[in-house]
Design brief:
This protein is of the alpha/beta class and about 900 residues long. It has 30 helices and 29 strands.
Length: about 900
Amino acid sequence: MTTNEMTSGLISDTTALTPVMRQYFAAKEQYPDCLMFCRIGDFYELFYEDAVTASRELQLTLTARDKEKKQPMCGVPYHAAEGYFQRLLRKGYRIAVCEQIEDPKLTKTIVRREVTRVLTPGTAVDPALGAEQSNYLASVVVLDKCVGLALLDLSTGEFRATEFSGWAEAADELGRVRPVELLYAQGGLVGLNGRSSDLLPTHRGKTAMNGAPLSSGTEEEAASVGLDGIRTKTAVEDWVFTADYAVPLLRNHLRVQSLDGMGLGGHEAAAVAAGALLHYMRATKQGGLEHVDGLRFYERSTCLELDAVSVRNLELVEPLFSGESAQTTLFYTLDACCTPMGKRLLRATLLRPSSQLVEIEGRLDAVGEAVADLRKREELRRSMSGVLDLERLLGRVALDSAGPREVMALAGTLGCLPGILAAVNSFKAELWRKLGAGLDAMEDLHELIVKTIAEEPPVSLADGGVIRAGVDAELDELRELSRSGRQALVAIEERERQRTGIGSLKVRFNSVFGYYLEVTKANAKAVPADYERKQTLVNAERFTTPELKEYETKILTAQERSGEIERRLFAELRRQLLDAAKRMRETARRVAEIDMLGCFAHLAALRGWVRPSVDASGVLEFLGARHPVVERRMEESGTGRFVPNSVHLDAGLVDPTHRDKTAMNGAPGDLRPGGPAVLLITGPNMGGKSTYLRQTALLVVMAQCGCFVPAERMRLGLVDRIYTRIGASDNVARGRSTFMVEMTETAAILNTATARSLVLLDEMGRGTATYDGLSLAWATVEHLHDRIGARTLFATHYHELTLLAERLSRLMNLRVTVKETASGIVFLHTVEAGAASKSYGIEVARLAGLPAKVISRAREVLKVHERAETQQVREAAPATPQLQMTMFTPLSQRIVDRLGEVDVDGLTPREALNLLAELQRELKG
Ligand SMILES: Nc1ncnc2c1ncn2[C@@H]1O[C@H](COP(=O)(O)OP(=O)(O)OP(=O)(O)O)[C@@H](O)[C@H]1O
């Protein structure tokens, strides 16, 4: 008999079951998708398939309730259960905890049992969660062709929602945020473009029996929706995802009349997703939602968009291959934050850099001021050094899992706030002033805690002595009573030793017998007649006396009563702290931002990074730029120096607001108007092409986060999106052909990139026959150049592509350089103008140790092919359509060209004036 059979009603005769098993099945029927942990005595037991699953996942011994072993079971001791729960949650399982809800001592029949908690990856806070990580529960809904998405991190109370016009963008956001659990309507996501989206269809819509994590459907689906990273997907009944139900629920929870104040006006889909998420929290019996007291509507359009593929390729927050060291990530390199909140904000900012000039410049101004003043900068960072995780501590208070020491830790952190405020106020930049003005130092709360809790409180409230003396008169009195009672016992012990002459006589306590006098067997004869025997052990006898009983009652009653008072006062304090939850969260948010800015300033000063000049042009120009991660790793491992390189790109966009900003960092003459929009980079393997591409993207990300950059100078016209198609990814493991993945990613770029985007294509077209690959690469470059005009870096091994420079006016060839020496080639890692003349693939193969015979044969074959191919490509490549110069040549270039054509000596003064007027007309559009 299996649980499935039982719960699906195949087995109707439950009378043969023991009463406990009947309770078990009743509970399991309600939560078929959870692993059911059933409390029996000191253990949580699992049965049937749940037992098989748990024993496999937790390496528990599988036993059986019956001789035929048809009823497998396994169990974990109740006091160690939380650790086992977490291990299963991390693997994506859902858990229901069926508790004994009566005291076994007080009932003569079977103890009642009920499910008191349902734990899921998104609703249970993992104590082992890293400070910089978030534990998002996500909820998604499609309403009126609009996709609503809500995200909640229960560990901090962060709650936000947004909307998308299409599923692809929503899936992309999910791929970036990587929630641990996703909620969606059971009926699937119906309504997108008037058709039923089959991306999360009903038949896969349920979490599998046994609480097993769902497989994410077919490969195409997984890739197209970017959901394959989410292990737990939970279907919730459709009615929950309706505006009539979810919106009032959300309003009630947030205690607001209208959601407009949270930026949710007119965003029903986002509100419904958020309301449904709260419904789920309640349905899984999660109390402690007090710290979830605000909801923020956020929009991606104010951000530099990074699709999930680019986040991965650029290793912004995670290494490309799981299991690799995190040291390859940009986050690791930039994380010099002092506080856990700062770390989390940095990580979130790297995933969502700004695309708003005012915001970026505001941050750069603030960072710049701190870079320039060592004393103030250090003071700022010092003021934050003792700050703990304010948001998580508050989360624990709300979830009622904060003990006295955590509350004291909270006070410690609150105590740092006045210092932080003073440090922030010492700066003048507008952003610092804004942050300072809104920073609530919360001295009242700090004082409240410090005055209520003892200086060095015990770990647990039950240990007593948590509340400071002087807080409650009755408590002080009771404590005095039990103290004097204990003193009296010491006196009794001494007196009785004298009276009986038994030097080893002791007054002792245990929870079963209370206080007693203990005498060794050898001395038992000397015991006076008024002692009343309580217990006989192998070596000792235990006695009591009426006097002892009297003190016992006094002491125990006093302790019990003071325990009650301590619990009440602690609960009152908790309530007061939660009443201030909103203030604390707001402060935590500001501290995070202060910390991140301080971190940027610290790194800039430490590593000599410079302030990027950001504007609304289409320029992207670096001088002496370095890859921050590779440079740091080379420094740390002592493997040489990183070779700086420069980049010059111009998408030819007119910057209406910053027309006068033609120079970087005030140095005139750096702007070369109408620079190339596409850079085609050739050169040997290992030459540094990928590094050059990635470094360009990373510097853009950093600059738009408001961070200084590792370069001598940088000018950046705002980028709206970064696209990357870099190297062969590990999609092969997911069963999709490398080439298919590459083409899907390239299609996404060609269909959605804009003239403001930055496109990085590395070795496109390698995964197929040479001519197919070359032709696709050729056509892609043409399309990017002619139709999109995005700033593009294209690294390739197809030397034939360098011929494109003859046809495309805004494409420039670059090459990574090598030096040929007698003993082989040396990589110089410098990028310079021009096409690589040779590919050196064979040289690199030689360095890798291919047999000499193979190398020399390869050289022969290469010669024959090279001659033939170059000729063919020249002849066969279709003519590029004539560029519409006026459309694609930047204005500045056209003016320069026009001036270049003029014969100045042959002009009359009037003609010169006319020309000037004409040029000005053109400038003004
Ligand atoms: N500017 C640089 N200064 C110093 N070392 C560099 C530089 N650029 C790249 N390197 C080092 O050279 C190695 C190869 O770089 P990269 O992977 O970028 O080469 P590639 O040209 O893309 O090679 P392939 O074509 O085989 O992918 C890396 O280990 C990197 O650390």
